[in-house]
Structure formats: structure tokens, C-alpha cells
Specification:
Layout (H helix, E strand, L loop, with lengths): L13 H21 L10 H14 L4 E5 L9 E5 L1 H25 L2 H11 L2 H7 L1 H19 L6 H15 L7 H22 L1 H7 L4 H5 L5 H19 L8 H26 L1
Antiparallel strand pairs: 1-2
Helix pairs in contact: 1-2, 1-3, 2-3, 3-4, 3-6, 5-6, 6-7, 7-8, 8-11
């Protein structure tokens, strides 16, 4: 359900590309250190956006370095480290665990059982450190599962639940900026859920799997779906722009105003061509 919140890399300067890559590698490095090497299989660029947003808002001191790794063994890759990189790493692993747990409970797939075991080794620590966020993940994923099983015909309901999950992830701590972070996160979560539903419409139809747009029974309607996406992203950027962001603002703008749509259009085109 992720993969949309990425940069339009071609529009980034070389320095911005380096910065983006170093944040991603920093999260990957921290997953390995805090959890395990295998846990990196759930890594997503979406978490790089979360880290960049919190770093821009709170401007922590950063540790920097370069290191080759099993994924990039030849050329050392730059990385950055700070509390928000570590937070994003833990959120990435916790999300992967709760998703694998839900998949295993629903279908008892061997792959889900294996993934649950990989990610689950670190979950007790993460739950203790971030109880609010982990409780939201567990609750929202369970609610999504229930809505899917009942064949919910209103896309707003599951999209809102996923928005609630993202809202809690966006809030590192309760402070002056919590309200705007929550609202931006909620709207971005709605966008992610609905964009994923649009892209998977034909595939889910063939596999007879739940999709909120299929459940509506109105047929394939990209124009209508895009109206939902535009509204969600407009709400997201409204609250995003209320945050006092300076550091990495151009990079964050690139992701929200360009990258999310580039990723969506790319997947939309591939979906239509497959059909």
C-alpha cells in the first residue's frame, strides 16, 4: 500500500539527490542496527519522506558517514543519522510486522508467517518505546481487515482508517505542531489508500479481491477517482504548508507536489496498458 510518496528524482539537484539518498540509506542502516538485516526487506521510500519532514521541522543535530553494505557492496553510500531517522526505521518495521500479522491471520500464508517472524523480533521493543503509534497501527489494520471482509462500499471509510494510522505516525511527540502533523498525515494516508485502490482496480477484479472502488459497483472511473486524490492531496498540503519548514523544504515540496503524482501516473499508465 506504499510506494507513492517518492521524489521526482529528475527534478532534484545533485545535492538534493544526495541528501535524499543519504536519508534513505540512513533509515536502511538503522533498521539493520536496531532490528536486523532481514528487516530491511520492508524498507520504503515513503519513510524517507516522514524522516525528512520531521528533520525539517525539528532540525536535530545529525551524524553523517559512508559505508558499503550487503545491498551496495562496492561503493560506500553516504548516510545520516538522528532521532527521526531512528524513529522512521522503527515505524517501517512495525508497519511491516502488523501487515504481515494481518495477512497471516487472514490467509495463513507461509510467506506472511515468515515475514511476521522476521519483523516480530523487534516489535516488543518498538511497542514499548512508541505505544501510541503501535496501538494505532494494530487497531487500524484490524479495522481495515474488518471493512474488507464485509465488502464496505464506501471508499471514505477504509481510506479514513488508513488516514488515522498515518496521522499517528506523523506525530513523533505531542507538541505545538501535533495538530497540523496529524491532519497532514491523515490526508496523505487517504491519498495513499485511494491511489493504491485505483491502481489495483483491474488486478483485484481479476483475483476477486476486495477493492473499495470495485465494491462501489460504479465501474472503472479514473476521472472520479482522481477527484478523490486531488482533494486528499490538497488537504495534505494545506496543513503541510502551516508547518515552519526551511531545511529540505525544496525536497519535500518536490515529493508532495510532484513525486506523488509522477509515481501515480507511472503506475496508472502501466495498469491501463496491462488492461
Amino acid at each position: 500500500m506504499f510506494g507513492f510518496v517518492v521524489a521526482d528524482v529528475k527534478e532534484l539537484s545533485k545535492e538534493e539527490q544526495k541528501r535524499y539518498s543519504s536519508v534513505y540509506c540512513g533509515i536502511c542502516r538503522r533498521i539493520r542496527l536496531q532490528c536486523s538485516g532481514l528487516s530491511r526487506m520492508g524498507l520504503s521510500y515513503d519513510m524517507a519522506f516522514l524522516a525528512l519532514l520531521l528533520m525539517s521541522l525539528y532540525e536535530p543535530e545529525e551524524e553523517q558517514g559512508k559505508r558499503a553494505c550487503g545491498i551496495h557492496p562496492i561503493r560506500p553510500r553516504p548516510w545520516v543519522d538522528n532521532p527521526y531517522i531512528r524513529y522512521s526505521a522503527d515505524m517501517n518495521v512495525a508497519l511491516a510486522y502488523y501487515k504481515a500479522l494481518d495477512d497471516y491471520n487472514d490467509e495463513h500464508k507461509t510467506t506472511a508467517k515468515w515475514a511476521k517472524g522476521v519483523f516480530g523480533k523487534s516489535v516488543a521493543r518498538i511497542e514499548k518505546q512508541y505505544p501510541r503509534q503501535c496501538a494505532a497501527m494494530a487497531d487500524c489494520i484490524a479495522r481495515l481487515s474488518a471493512l474488507e471482509k464485509e465488502g464496505c462500499t464506501n471508499p471514505d471509510l477504509p481510506a479514513g482508517v488508513f488516514g488515522t494510522l498515518m496521522a499517528e505516525l506523523f506525530v513523533y511527540e505531542e507538541d505545538l505542531w501535533s495538530e497540523n502533523l496529524r491532519k497532514a498525515g491523515a490526508a496523505l494516508g487517504r491519498f495513499i489508500y485511494l491511489a493504491d485502490a485505483a491502481i489495483d482496480y483491474r488486478k483485484d477484479g481479476k483475483k476477486k479481491q476486495y477493492n473499495p472502488f470495485l465494491a462501489m459497483g460504479t465501474g472503472e472511473d479514473w476521472g472520479r477517482w482522481e477527484e478523490y486524490l486531488v482533494l486528499s492531496m490538497a488537504r495534505c498540503t494545506e496543513y503541510y504548508e502551516r508547518l515552519p519548514l526551511v531545511q529540505d523544504k525544496k525536497l519535500l515540496d518536490n515529493i508532495l507536489y510532484g513525486g506523488v503524482w509522477l509515481s501515480y501516473r507511472k503506475q496508472q499508465g502501466a495498469t491501463k496498458n496491462d488492461g
